[in-house]
C-alpha cells in the first residue's frame, strides 16, 4: 500500500476502535469515516464490509484471548485456570463495549483455535473433578451472553457488576454444586442460530 493508504487505514482503525469501545459494534460506518477524517468511499476501499473492519479492529483481542487460554492451561490448578480464563475474557469485554458485542456474537465454535483451547480448559477442569461433568462448550455461550448483557446494562451505572454475575455463575458450574439439568445442551447448529439473533 502507498504511504497515504497505510495512513488512512490506521486512522480508520483508530477511529473504529474508539467508537466501538465507547458505543458498541453498531456505530454507523459513515460516522467512523468522519471521525477518521476520510470519506465513506475510502473506508469501503480499505474495508469492503463491516465484518472486515471489525476483524481488523479486534485482531489483537483475539490474540489476547488465545494468550489467556494458554496461561490458564499452564496453571497448576485446573479450576483456577478455568476461572482465571473466564475472568480475563470478561475483563476484556468490560473494558470495551465493541469487544463485548463481538464476544456475544462470535462465541468460539468447532474449528476455531479458540474453540480448541476452550475445550481443553473445560475438559481439564472436568477431569480434575472440579467442573461439573455435564457442561459443554455450547453451555459456555450462555455464560458469555449473560455476562455480556450484564456489562451492557451496567456499563455506566455499576461497571463492576459483571464480577458478581460471573462469580455466581462460576459457583454454579462447580462439580460440588451440580444437580441434574432440566434439558439437554444446545447443538452446535442451534448455538449458531442463537448467535445470529444476538
**Helix coverage percent of residues?**
over 70%
Structural class label: mainly alpha
Please report the distance between the alpha carbons of the first and last residues. Answer: 36 Å
Radius of gyration: 19 Å
What is the count of β-strands?
Answer: 0
Which consecutive residue ranges, at least 5 long each, have pLDDT under 50? none
Order of helices and strands: HHHHHHHHHHH
| Count of discrete alpha- or pi-helical segments spanning 4 or more residues | 11
Biggest sheet features: none
Features:
198 residues; mainly alpha; 11 helices; elongated
What is the secondary structure topology, with strand pairs?
Blueprint: H1 3-23, H2 29-36, H3 40-46, H4 50-57, H5 59-74, H6 78-94, H7 97-105, H8 113-127, H9 137-154, H10 161-173, H11 188-197
Helix pairs in contact: 1-2, 1-4, 5-6, 5-8, 6-7, 6-8, 6-10, 7-9, 9-10
